[in-house]
Amino acid sequence: MPTLTNAQIAAALDELGDLNELDGAIIHRVVAYRNGAKAVRDASVSVATLAVAGRATELPGIGATLQEKIVALAETGTIPAAEKLRAKFPAGLVEITRLPGLGPKRARLLYDELGIDSLESLRAAVASQRLRELKGFGPKAEENIAAGLDAGAAEKSGTRVLLDRALAIGEPIVAALRDHPASERVELAGSARRWADSVKDLDIIATARDPAALAAALGDLEIVESVQATGEAGGRATTHSGMSVDLKIVAPEQFGNLLQHFSGSREHNMALRDAAVRRGLHVSEYGVLDDSDGVTHTCETEAEVYALLGMEYIEPELRENRGELAAAANGGDGLPDLVEEKHLRGDLHCHTTLSDGTASIEEMAAAALERGYTYLAITDHSASHGFGDDVPPAALERQIERVHAANAAIDGIELLAGSEVNIMPDGSLDYDDDLLARLDWVIASVHTSFNMSDQRMTDRVITAIEHPWVDAIGHLTGRKIGTRPGYAIDVEAVIAAAAGNQTMIEINANPNRRDIDDVHARATAAAGVPVLINSDAHSPGGFAVARYGIATARRGWLGKKDIANTRTQKQFSAMRKRARNRR
DNA sequence: GCCGTTTTCGGCCCGACTGTTTTCAGTCG
User: Fold this and answer.
1) In principle, which of A278, A306, A498, A551 could form an S-S bond with A311, CB 3.0–4.6 Å?
2) Spacing of A278 CA from B7 C1' in Å
3) Can you tell me the distance from the alpha carbon of A430 to that of A423, in angstroms, rounded to the nearest whole number?
4) What pLDDT is attached to residue A158?
5) Using CA of residue A28, residue A29, residue A31, residue A35, what is the dihedral sign?
6) Are A193 and A182 in contact, with CB atoms under 8 Å apart?
């Protein structure tokens, strides 16, 4: 089967989009390539396999032509059209379009008129002031391009920070603005509101009795380092941590339009407006213009915006153009009833001082109880873990006794004696079966040997899934958001194996991981695999990250029924035993 | 290049900003 990953296909389609844009193709063709790339990126199955079977056209945005190109890439390793265009335009030209202020049109002009084909030759042309000879370029353009080159080039967009850091800044700001006497409504918008993995800057939308006073209040916050501009319409500030915060203050009757617009995603809004145009409506941040009467309808709430388009309200986490618009439309399948943090009744992955945690069994149990949980698995690392955090078999035996004693001593919560067992490179586990059989709960994870082939890694994890005493798989892909991609693994095959064995798959809620991700979570639940939302807490405060796991589940369209640890203690216990009996 | 409760052909999101212009193209989010 093809070893071509969806990420590789998406990159190839994006490149075709870039090259076609340089070639002067109509923008709609370019957009079609980029839409195709997104569809491939969001697909939860192997698109190469799908394309070879002639079924990739089932994906939205993939037609016969793109499918043909994907098949060529899978079978020959290259796409003829891309080869031709690459011969026509030097690779440096695409780099030039990444500079701020330089798009395909102007980059092409630089190439055609001055022969500029790399960042180096561009720098030389700027230095000799040759750019200003060109139509449409002036001294200002030269200056801006020079600044872009000096800024290290290739950095059109700023750096992103993890969602937990962004919310640690955004939530207190929103709370403070809500407390201000001049404010009425204050909501966080943007990717933070959609609970994306990471965030570039913060958008806040507000209405106010006294807009100027509220805008001024933003600048007065202790967390704010500097203010760029404030006035009746809001303001922009930078926090001491370097986060840019944009406050927009709007009339109450337009609050729904603005909040909808600035909550995004970009792709969701584009698809929304596209759907609106077909009904003779034009959506913008200012309102919904109706062609039939020329009236712009403003909306106090987002629900009104969607209602005008014949849609039910769409939760922010779903706004990624992954089918939510069709589902929300009249006559669509409807949107899922999403899981909420209050539905969680237990946690099946946490650590104590036995391995690398900072608290005792009792302290972790108390923290779980405080959150209203009725069951908790204590899952320290296993025999081969290393870093001095390994738990030899004899130590695990003593731990089982301690957990069971604590369970007897503490009311209101069932403590499961468990382990987070390492999956060895050959798929075996690092305790023997007799010891594993004595545990109430086993979650198996990969912690070593990440650089295996896709096939070997897949076999490794599937071997663990089929193990009779393995209840669940932890942080399946090993990704660290923004720093390390997941290792090569066929998630689709793993999900199928988990479905066959009723082995649960965790959403690790740590904001660095959120592993599995939203797209895989959706596929996992669709395959009938019970999904867990686990904190992987290493301290009593660590349980609080559950909300990021909930967010990933919601972004994956999951409801309460899809999440195993929303079950009562009795139901969960029965579920776990049924699954063990099947294996 | 994709797609269809006006279409298998003719459409294809919306507005702001910038620098260059004398009415606007290109870029950006």
Assistant:
1) A306
2) 11
3) 7
4) 61
5) positive
6) no
